[in-house]
Amino acid sequence: MGLSLRTWVASILLLTHLVHGALSWGVGGHYAVCKIAQSYFEKNTLVAVKKLLPAYANGELAAVCSWPDEIKRRPEWNWTYALHYADTPNYECNYEYSRDCRNGKCVTGAIFNYVSHLVFQFHYNLTEALLFVSHFMGDVHQPLHEGFKGDQGGNNVKLNWYNQETNLHRVCDDKIIESALKKYYNSSLSVMIHSLLNKLEYGWSNDVPSWESCPGHQTVCPNRYASESIDLACKYAYKDATTGTTLGDYYFLSRLYIVEKRIAQGGIRLAATLNRIFSSNSEARCSMKLRLSCNGGIKVM
Ligand SMILES: *[C@@H]1O[C@H](CO)[C@@H](O)[C@H](O)[C@H]1NC(C)=O
Ligand SMILES: *[C@@H]1O[C@H](CO)[C@@H](O)[C@H](O)[C@H]1NC(C)=O
Ligand SMILES: *[C@@H]1O[C@H](CO)[C@@H](O)[C@H](O)[C@H]1NC(C)=O
To answer: Ligand 2, atom 13: nearest CA belongs to which residue?
Structure first.
């Protein structure tokens, strides 16, 4: 396990440096979410995260944030496959935990679960818990990870992205990001991340406090993020994107802002959650633990 993660990290680092353009909430989206989060970590969080990261991540959470995607199809890990999404009933355009997350086996349930591992320091491997939380925080912000059950979150909506055959899920995972890298960011993920950090500081700064906070001071509130996602999926992702259509400039230019904002929100909320978990203030931590348990967050798998 350790060795394969190490090999995998090495190949991702290579990818990141060599073929920016080919990167994609595929690898690129997750990298961006975690890289943005890192720049919002408080001091205690930085220390705690570095302690949990494998040495070969070189202190970079972003370098290992796609690990759950890499393992999810392996026989010993395929029980994690359903933890990456929370599909919703066709055309309902809303999300409900009890309906869409049976037995906690979905992306929101997984976030509750692994956050409680980190808060309570259960005996579960906390390195893995950190990587799962970091990855699923990205996934829950991708609108089609809360897409319709009937088309598997857009995976069965086969269409064209410009002249390329693909499906709607991949458009939202990768294609919009890839096209943006080429058109606006000099084919460089780090240029894009830099631009998002700038937007966070100067454009979205007034929104950031409301993105960070959770109702009732919960540690994390993935149900809210999932509700936002299916709302965006209905209003933007599915709109004008039926099977057989060709998506081009109009779709790209009108949806890019949403993809960028969701990546930024994912990063901000990952940082806010980890900051709350690793807060130095033990009194705050204690009351946070109570809140977490009061809010039905304890779902150990
Ligand atoms: C925790 O998980 C990571 C990643 O799977 C692995 O490399 C590491 O050896 C594990 N640590 C322990 C103590 O099992
Ligand atoms: C996981 O893989 C095993 C072996 O290939 C298979 O029997 C099982 O149905 C898979 N489970 C899931 C949830 O995909
Ligand atoms: C764009 O990328 C190329 C290749 O990496 C680099 O040489 C060039 O300086 C970059 N341009 C800008 C404006 O950053």
So the answer is: 79
Domain ranges of the chain: 2-294
Tell me what pLDDT residue 121 has. 82
Answer yes or no: is the C-beta of 76 below 6 A from any ligand 2 atom.
no
CA–CA gap between residue 239 and residue 236 (Å, rounded): 5
Strand order in the sheet with 164-167: 164-167, 158-161, 246-247
pTM of the model: 0.88
In this predicted structure, the answer to whether residue 4 has a pLDDT above a threshold of 90 is no
pLDDT tens for each residue of 174-216: 999 999 999 999 999 999 999 999 999 999 999 999 999 999 9
Nearest alpha carbon, ligand 2 atom 7: 75
* Distance separating alpha carbons of residues 29 and 84, to the nearest angstrom: 14
Task: Tell me: pLDDT of 84 over 50.
Answer: yes
Ligand number, closest to the Cα atom of 20? 3
Distance, in Å, from the CA atom of 242 to the CA atom of 287, rounded to the nearest integer, reads: 47
Any ligand 1 atom below 6 A from CB of 21: no
Alpha carbon distances (Å) from 203 to 42, 66, 149, 196, 198: 22, 28, 35, 9, 8
Q: Report the pLDDT value the prediction gives residue 295, as an integer from 0 to 100.
A: 38
Contact status, residue 107 vs residue 140, Cβ threshold 8 Å: yes
Domain 2-294 fold: P1 Nuclease (1.10.575)
Residue-wise pLDDT for 248-261, tens only, equals: 999 999 999 999 99
Please name the residue whose Cα sits nearest to atom 12 of ligand 1.
125
What integer is the mean pLDDT of 85-96? 98
3-class SS at 1?
A: coil
Residue 5 CB–ligand 1 contact under 6 Å: yes
- Report the distance separating Cα 195 and Cα 193, nearest Å: 5
User: CA–CA distance from 71 to each of 60, 107, 137 (Å)?
Assistant: 19, 16, 17
